[in-house]
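Quick sanity check, Amidohydrolase-related domain-containing protein:
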Amino acid sequence: MRGHEDAAGDVREDTAGRGEAAVDQGEAAAAEFAEVAAFRDSLGLDALVDVHTHFMPDRVMAKVWAYFDAAGPLVGRHWPIAYRAEEERRLATLRGFGVRAFTSMLYPHKPGMARWLNDWSADFAARTPDCLHTATFFAEPSAADDVRRALGQGTRVFKCHLQVGGYDPNDPLLDEVWGLLADAGVPVVTHCGSGPVPGPFTGPGPITALLARHPRLRLVVAHLGMPEYEDFLGLAERHDGVHLDTTMAFTDFSESAAPFPTRALPRLAALGDRILLGTDFPNIPYPYPHALRALERTGLGPTWLRAVCHDNATALFTLPPR
């Protein structure tokens, strides 16, 4: 039998190990904060606005992380979570990056989820004033009531995930939803591109049909429409209410599988007032500063970057001036 002194030694060793890990994490975070601050300083910005970040109920987030860990069918590749931590630490990290406003993107994968997700998100926004109140919906009979209720709660942005939800945006169950959102002028961040794995209703076709019926919608195409970048750029060129977010675009991780065509960079530059910073924090497989440096290496210049990283979203969500 081992003695108390041996056991105490193990405890001291374990505690010391955890302490060293905490110091290492703290130093890594400080280095990342400094890198993002340098990026902001180079653009004359004291803050960023990130329109594509994820906050969810703990048990839902745990399931999402488990799905990424398993490289599930909708992920299709190894995808380590860079910022796996409890909620308060994730919030502190975003704020440490100088993000003045962000979202709590969440999404149902089956009927009956949207309303309780929205109730959680309303509470989260109430206790997190720098979060843009976010809501979602699903193609189900209660969809219009769910959206009407969320709008009444003060929602400022919706998330529509066609890949995970597996529904057609032109489903008759959503007709009233799109009308409500068009009338309200509330932006809808929509995962409609076919990355990382296509779904039955991803790609430009379904969204093109939707906008033909609801041309006043304010859609934010997530991930620049990856991998159908040029098709979704065309959609934005034809519809003034269509924006695109930069989530994961131009990073080494995405470029290895779905490179952005360099011939389309002038079109991206021309749409400069409708491109918004998004990152997918915390569910990204690389450090947050890499997402910003990836945008920088497009060569589109500081004026474009300033608009993307702050000014465009500030205008879209009528944020107070800094």
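Posting the structure with no commentary besides this: DSSP finds 13 helices and nine strands in the chain.
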